[in-house]
Specification:
alpha/beta; Rossmann fold; Alpha-Beta Plaits; 14 helices; 14 strands; elongated
Length: 430
């Protein structure tokens, strides 16, 4: 196996000691703990024990402090854990020091997420992006010879966070990794250019594009399947969707949109992961509007909405028009809470993507959004230009027609880039 090429293995058989660094706010600490458990479970890791650490400032040598590192060593011995997962990002030195003290592999939060990504990637683009992110993570750690470094590249026999580029027999040096990173960036740049060509072709269809965004496991793929009659894989697990999927959705009033499913967000998504997955996340920035899917039954709903807003800001998409869907309404018995959420959130509705209940409310919101994106025209089209009338029917919405001696007096909503074709016919635009 080439140590620079990721391998993918679904199920590590690891038993982990989860180390959670508690925040000052108890609710935030609970959210961090739950998320770390879900990340570990999604990576195929069983939790052997949990250790909570409260520190005002991270320790430079061990992050959690030398005393807590010793306690982690004792807990590893008592529980038989073979890996320690820290719910924070560690420096290479902190990771090595913790490994030396605990005598097991130490995996930080970014490394754990990368491991899940390695398992989920299916397309060549997704695999390229995962490998790039893994190598960028690996590069500053090549100077160390800790437990995790000596085991990287172990293939299917390895455990959590051993899938990926690796450093079999420590033969991979910084120069080779940098060369590989440079090559991957070039390949991904080609992907970006190819996607730009595809997006240009889509725009020529004159169909508005929407991107599904939301916290991971909020139900985006299930909603795509409902609206488009698609068969996208949908599971109640973190990062079930890694590669983007686009489908055409035909609405009841005859309008259509191109709807793209994207990778789910999490709290404090590492910035370099956002950068590595730029090609995938361009589905968000290139869309005309967003559909933010929220798990209305989740007890950390508020924190998850903030996390999504923060990632959108990182992508520069915070000012795009947004429809908010409070999903999984079938799991929430408090209907008053659902109505309150909708009343407080502009352009929102609640529904169940699983059962389809409330679908009509979302479609009504989409139709209103399309109308806002369209240009309204009033023009007298000559009778010999029936192609323009057909254009309105195909790509827009006819509001009224009247047959006058000069031609067809037409009022319609059409895509802005088509409005110029009507300028010579006494068009008025609003």
């Amino acid at each position: 196996m080439n140590p620079l090429n990721p391998t993918h293995d679904t199920g590590s058989g690891d038993r982990a000691l989860l180390i959670v660094v508690d925040a000052k706010d108890q609710r935030e600490s609970d959210a961090n703990t739950e998320e770390l458990r879900l990340l570990a479970d999604s990576a195929g890791v069983k939790t052997a024990d949990e250790m909570h650490v409260r520190r005002q400032y991270p320790d430079a040598r061990f992050y959690i402090g030398s005393g807590n590192a010793e306690e982690a060593h004792l807990r590893v011995q008592e529980t038989g854990a073979n890996v320690a997962i820290v719910g924070a990002d560690l420096s290479p030195a902190q990771q090595r020091n913790l490994e030396t003290t605990t005598e097991v592999r130490v995996v930080d939060r970014t490394q754990l997420i990368l491991d899940i990504f390695a398992q989920r990637a299916r397309t060549s683009e997704g695999k390229l992006q995962v490998e790039l992110a893994q190598l960028q993570y690996l590069l500053p750690r090549l100077s160390g010879k800790g437990i995790a470094m000596s085991r990287l590249g172990g293939g299917s026999a390895g455990g959590v966070a051993t899938r990926g580029p690796g450093e079999t027999k420590l033969e991979t040096d910084r120069r080779r990794v940098r060369d590989r990173i440079s090559l991957l960036k070039d390949e991904l740049e080609s992907v970006v250019k190819q996607r730009a060509v595809q997006n240009k072709a889509r725009r020529q269809l004159h169909i508005p594009g929407a991107a599904l965004v939301g916290y991971t496991s909020a139900g985006k793929s299930t909603l795509l399947n409902l609206l488009a009659g698609a068969d996208v894989e949908a599971h109640a697990r973190l990062f079930a969707t890694l590669d983007p999927t686009t489908r055409r959705v035909d609405l009841q009033d005859g309008a259509s949109i191109l709807l793209s499913d994207t990778v789910g967000f999490i709290r404090n998504l590492p910035h370099h992961l956002v950068a590595a997955f730029r090609a995938t996340l361009e589905e968000v920035t290139d869309s005309d509007f967003l559909i933010h899917v929220v798990d209305s039954a989740h007890h950390f709903l508020h924190e998850q909405r903030i996390a999504v807003d923060n990632v959108l800001a990182d992508l520069g998409a915070q000012n795009k028009p947004v429809i908010t869907v409070f999903n999984k309404s079938d799991l929430l018995s408090n209907q008053y809470e659902l109505r309150r959420l909708v009343a407080e959130t502009p352009d929102s509705c609640y529904m169940s993507a699983l059962t389809g209940e409330g679908r009509q409310y979302l479609e009504a919101l989409i139709q209103k959004m399309i109308s806002r994106l369209m240009t309204r025209i009033n023009a007298t089209v000559p009778y010999d230009r029936g192609d323009l009338v057909a254009l309105c029917h195909e790509h827009g919405r006819i509001l009224s027609t009247e047959y006058v001696p000069e031609g067809v007096l037409i009022e319609a909503e059409i895509p802005p880039n088509l409005a110029a074709r009507f300028e010579q016919y006494g068009i008025t635009i609003s």
